[in-house]
Amino acid sequence: MSLNPRFLGQNSTLPASPDEATLDYVPNPRVGSLYLVRFAAPEFTSLCPVTGQPDFAHLVLDYAPGETIVESKSLKLFLGSFRNHCGFHEDVTVGIGQRLTQEMKPRWLRIGGYWYPRGGIPIDVFWQSSAPPEGLWVPDQGVAGYRGRG
């Protein structure tokens, strides 16, 4: 944890892979307050591990901070590093949630991966670290189910 994030205000290159990406965490400015932080990545991409073709998703990440919060530029670079990463939707979505939970140690975290169709079937993947803390306002993620051009 640092008061001086490595990427904020700096020219930063996109990491070659999620394993090479570094996430920065800074002290929670409202320790002891129960609140929710939401990040949305509506143009997330990774690669199909079988064909190597790009897969697209709308990711929504919600968390209730503990002692730290994730620095948003490092999160952006981490998510961007998946552009060259081959992984099934389930592995990518759950892996992002688990890494953030392991490193940041939030009070609660959930991720929704709303993947666009592969082989004609949209795949949505959801993961959460635990039940939400009592009293936490958890709004709907607001992503409609896939309807095609309808």
TrEMBL record:
It is an enzyme of class 1 (oxidoreductase). It comes from Sphingomonas astaxanthinifaciens DSM 22298. It holds the Pfam family QueF. The keyword Acetylation does not apply. Substrate binds at V70, E71, S72, H89, E90. Catalyzes the NADPH-dependent reduction of 7-cyano-7-deazaguanine (preQ0) to 7-aminomethyl-7-deazaguanine (preQ1). Keywords: Cytoplasm, NADP, Oxidoreductase, Queuosine biosynthesis. This is NADPH-dependent 7-cyano-7-deazaguanine reductase. Its main location: cytoplasm. InterPro entries: GTP-CH-I_C/QueF, NADPH_dep_7-cyano-7-deazaG_red, QueF, QueF_type1. Belongs to the GTP cyclohydrolase I family. QueF type 1 subfamily. The active site is at C48, D55. It catalyses: 7-aminomethyl-7-carbaguanine + 2 NADP(+) = 7-cyano-7-carbaguanine + 2 NADPH + 3 H(+). Pathway: tRNA modification; tRNA-queuosine biosynthesis. The keyword Plastid does not apply. It is found in: Cytoplasm. Its EC number is 1.7.1.13. HAMAP family: QueF_type1.
